[in-house]
Write a structure and sequence with these properties.
Elements (H helix, E strand, L loop, with lengths): L1 H8 L1 H4 L4 E4 L16 E5 L8 E4 L4 E4 L8 E3 L5 E3 L9 E8 L4 E7 L1 H4 L10 E7 L5 E6 L12 E6 L5 E5 L4 E5 L5 E6 L7 E8 L3 E9 L5 E10 L7 E2 L13 E3 L5 E5 L7 E8 L8 E16 L5 E5 L9 E7 L2
Antiparallel strand pairs: 2-24, 3-4, 4-5, 5-6, 7-8, 8-9, 9-10, 11-12, 12-13, 13-14, 15-16, 16-17, 17-18, 19-20, 20-21, 21-22, 22-23, 23-24
Length: 335
Amino acid sequence: MKNIVKMKNSLMSVAALSVLTLISTACTTASSSIALPSSIMVNGVAQNPEGIEYDKNDHTFLLSSLNAAPIIKVNTDGTFKAFTSGEKFPLSSAGLQIDYKHNRLLVAGFNGMELMDKKPETKGISFLRVYNLKTGVLEKDINLSHLAPHASAYFANDIAVDDAGNAYISDWYAKVIYKVDLSGKATLFWRNETVISGGPNGLDCNSDGFLLVSLLNVNAKGLYSDYGLIKIPLEKPSSVQVVTISDSKFSGFDGMVINEKGNVIGVSNNQKTPGGNTLLELSTQDNWKSAKVLNVKAIKASTTVAITPENDNYVINQDFTRNFAKSWHVEKISF
């Protein structure tokens, strides 16, 4: 019970790790092209966004809401509108995943109110919410928590999609990954039994048939701890491998994506100040048995990264001590 209380008390300080944590791209590559600004300021909405995704169809950014508000669609000039609708009850939203092939926006939903109520008997809940990518109307609402009944708490964090349309949702607190097929059938895909004690946060799907998943915790100082990167074969998740990364500049990922070069771009921590304050690029030469740090860039506090068809990296700057702030900054980061 002490662990649950500790998690609830620290939610706002570690929410920056949500997988949304936070936002991964699908295994397909976008094809549209447009010149985007290096900075977009969103004013006038208490969105508290943890996740960000770029929609190549209309050249907008989608921002989730830890405050359980609708997901908003943001234009390149900073104007925005509410996008999602049709829910029977509100949920906080973390990771976002566009599935262009099936015209879907996939959203990791969780009960942020319960995780912050300081009551150890309330454990939260994890959902996958499936919206029409064109209209924003809810099409499926899938409860995932029942698949891990003995978990101490639930925090649906990030989402990845494979070529067949199967969605994989990380639950940071339950330390599991759920799988939901196109029909909406949900199963427990993987449970963390590795030597790394952190929960699954950011994840993305490699077109060769495996997931790359970030595992991490956050210590009392708000620094990443118990972290690592793992490789999970989609057809045999029990054959999970820990990716060997010896470079001390790697200190775990919050949100992460695989770019068109096959490298991983993720929000990390500098091990000096709390939160996601570093954008880091990993590459491999042995199909993710091991990896090395290719690029590092200091950034403002952020949670995750979205990659455009032009291979530009965009983060959503976030200050989780001010969850009802009404200004949010989308910024391009170049190595």
